[in-house]
Specification:
Elements: H1 19-37, H2 43-58, H3 61-65
Helix pairs in contact: 1-2
């Protein structure tokens, strides 16, 4: 899933993050970024997606769901 002309993203895996959780988290990050690149988010939705993206980049899904 790469928007035309945009560089591909690399999502780092957190220490101790299970492979399945990493795959889900990185997939969600990539989907959000692609949405921004394609101009899908506006207004409050864009704000919410940006906050979600920041949380996903800072913490594992296990910590987010706790």
């Amino acid at each position: 899933m790469e928007a035309e002309g945009w560089p591909s993203l690399q999502v780092e895996r957190f220490d101790g993050e299970p492979p399945v959780a990493y795959r889900h988290r990185s997939q969600e990050i990539l989907e959000i970024v692609e949405g921004f690149r394609m101009g899908r988010y506006r207004g409050e939705i864009a704000e919410r997606m940006e906050r979600r993206l920041i949380r996903l980049q800072e913490q594992s899904l296990e910590l987010l769901s706790a």
